[in-house]
């Protein structure tokens, strides 16, 4: 699956874009979107994404030579996004993994049929050891190793050298345990031994050998409004995409990756802190308005805010109207300059279609606003 629609250019050869695809993430947007916004804002000095997901905006800022700040309430998103800001050699990542293994086994291996069928026992043992170590470590090398492991945690089985650690599974979302076990049993598909270090080594060199220079910034794990109120920096470009209205499966569909970053070894159905938990459209619009107001308080006059948004057809609503109302309700000085359909990018790179399950009839729109009034 293509994860970015951006065409390699002399400035950004294909291998410089690889790190952006370290791990897929639900409704990630293609790199083109933030790159277009950066191209339209040549004087930008610092970039913000208050719903940063896997950190696509942060990676675009890195390519453009700018520092950036990302905020996300989902620990999986924050872990992937962190790696987009880190400058690390493949050798350093492999050395850390080796050092962890040399320190002996750690952690309790989760029990149950799912785990027995999903990973070969020695592979699972190695995975748990890495998980335990990384839960306690916050160095840049650890951040990169964590993101690489999130990216290889599950995916299809290859005929040749393995690229993923799990038994057959989609790469984009984790199957539910009961479904997965039935699938594997029916096909007598026993998990095979995958040496974790070898897969890390191959993936690290592919992703990092030509990674562009990092230009600083930070990822915060938390609620956007709360986090923004504690920030000191100011921004002149904001590129973001809030959760699409009606889409509530962010956390449950990433349950194996959530486990790896410290969650329980089962599917969590809660939507703690997620803006999508709002009970109705009005509450959702109001919650978005609060984010735009908090964003305005951290922006310079003249700042550009570019938002990609959509709604599931089942939500029976007009996402354009919702977004425009939220900007107005923010009463923060955002003046809408452009509203247009997000367009139809090349097959299967459309944000809402990346995961196959989200439905194909989602209207995605891009809205660009400029900060002209004084923020309240
Ligand atoms: C559409 S996704 C962003 C995808 C991102 N543009 C990318 O390319 O990966 C929306 C993100 O908003 C996050 N989110 C939801 N509620 C939030 C909140 N209250 N504060 C911060 N982030 C939140 C979700 O966890 C999700 O990662």
Entry keywords:
376 residues; binds S-adenosylmethionine; disordered N terminus; alpha/beta; globular; seven-stranded mixed beta sheet
Structure, described:
- It is a single chain.
- Strands 3-2-1-4-5-7-6 form a 7-stranded mixed sheet, with helices on both faces.
- It has helices spanning 32-39, 56-63, 75-83, 90-102, 113-118, 121-135, 140-152, 177-186, 196-208, 224-230, 255-260, 281-297, 319-329; strands spanning 47-49, 68-72, 217-221, 235-240, 299-311, 334-341, 363-371.
- It folds into 2 domains: 14-86 and 215-371, Vaccinia Virus protein VP39 (Rossmann fold, 3-Layer(aba) Sandwich), CATH 3.40.50.150; 90-208, no CATH class.
- The protein is globular.
- The longest helix has 17 residues, at 281-297.
- The chain is built from 13 helices and 7 strands.
- It is 36% helix and 13% strand.
- The termini are far apart.
- Strand 1 (47-49), helix 2 and strand 2 form a beta-alpha-beta unit.
- The structure holds S-adenosylmethionine.
- S-adenosylmethionine is lined by residues 25, 27-29, 51, 53-54, 56, 71-74, 77, 223-224, 241-243, 250, 273-275.
- Residues 25, 27-29, 51, 53-54, 56, 71-74, 77, 223-224, 241-243, 250, 273-275 line the site of S-adenosylmethionine.
How much of the sequence lies in strands comes to 5-15%
Number of domains: 2
Strand order across the largest sheet: 3-2-1-4-5-7-6
Poorly predicted residue ranges: 1-5, 346-360
Please give the largest β-sheet: 7 strands, mixed
Mean pLDDT: 90
Tell me the CATH topology of the largest domain. Answer: Rossmann fold
* DSSP helix fraction: 25-40%
> Using DSSP, what is the number of strands?
7
Question: How many DSSP H or I helices?
Answer: 13
